[in-house]
Amino acid sequence: MKTVLVTGANKGIGHEVARQLGRKGFHVFVGARNSEKGQTATQALRKDGAMATFISLDVSAPESIRNAVQVVAGTADHLDVLVNNAGVILEGDNSIAQLDPETVTKTFQTNTLGPLLVTQAFLPLLSRSNAPRVVNVSSGGGQLAEGMDTWAPAYCLSKTALNAVTCLCAAALPNFSINSVCPGWVRTDMGGSNATRSPEEGADTIVWLATEAPTNLTAKFLRDRKVIAW
After folding, report:
1. Smallest Cα–Cα separation from 201: which of 190, 188, 215, 212?
2. Of the listed 11, 37, 106, 155, which one is catalytic?
3. Which of 22, 113, 185, 197 has the most CB atoms less than 10 A away?
4. For residue 106, with 0-12 CB atoms within 10 Å meaning exposed, 13-18 middle and 19 or more buried, which class applies?
5. Rounded (10°) angle between helices 199-211 and 12-23
6. Residue 164 CB partners (closer than 8 Å, separation 6+)
């Protein structure tokens, strides 16, 4: 059976990715920082027919990551896909001219360092897959080529750095498929109710990269299943 760990899978894009992959026959490991919400999300996936296992996982806490590896390894002998979806936008992240260093540090801890540490920790399990894939959920807000947005500067900076993590990991792991995805502006707690895309639309490219995309597609930034500039 194919296996996948989705971080931040208790709601929003992460939960939709988990739902779609569960329907495709994956054993879904539901990573979530909040145990109650994570358990509820896992039960919902099971009711939908998926094989789902809750994993307590705070990507900003190294000990939590190490514990999550042990739990997954106790259930599965390999991991086919890692979706680094968990992310934050913190209160006060609204002006580069007045941005507090602590806000930047905490944002990077979750949005950039978290995916790197989770990827590192799960490398032994991913390496046992015949076609290991890592999908980093990034943002057009971190895109350099078209001019960075001015909203949520710490968040945007963290996603630019996450794209660099994608490139470095892909270069170091040539047998892996490792890519970044911009899901677009999605109606979630983070995106708000005025966002132009549904969670299903936001999840589409992520699920495609986890399943059907060519395995030699790596070190790319994608939106709507198409490569975009960094």
Report:
1. 188
2. 155
3. 22
4. middle
5. 50
6. none
Catalytic residue at 2? no
Active site residue 159: yes
Taking only the tens place, the pLDDT of each residue in 130-164 is 999 999 999 999 999 976 777 899 999 999 999 99
pLDDT at 198: 78
Q: Sign of the C-alpha dihedral, residues 24, 29, 34, 39?
A: positive
Residue 189 has pLDDT above 80, yes or no: no
Cβ contact 52:22 at 8 Å: yes
Nearest to 181 by CA among 226, 141, 223: 223
CB 30 within 8 A of CB 7: no
Q: Which residue has the higher pLDDT, 218 or 191?
A: 218
Residue of 110, 38, 37 lying closest to 28 (CA atoms): 38
Instruction: Give the chain's end-to-end CA distance (angstroms, integer).
Output: 34
Active-site residue among 2, 159, 220, 226?
159
Domains along the chain with CATH numbers: 3-228 (3.40.50.720)
Q: The pTM is what? A: 0.96
In whole angstroms, what is the distance from residue 51 CA to residue 2 CA? 11
Per-residue DSSP letters for 111-143?
Answer: IIIHHHHHHHHHHHHHTTSSS-EEEEE--GGG-
pLDDT at 151: 86
What are the strands, taking DSSP E only, across 57-205? 81-84, 133-137, 177-181
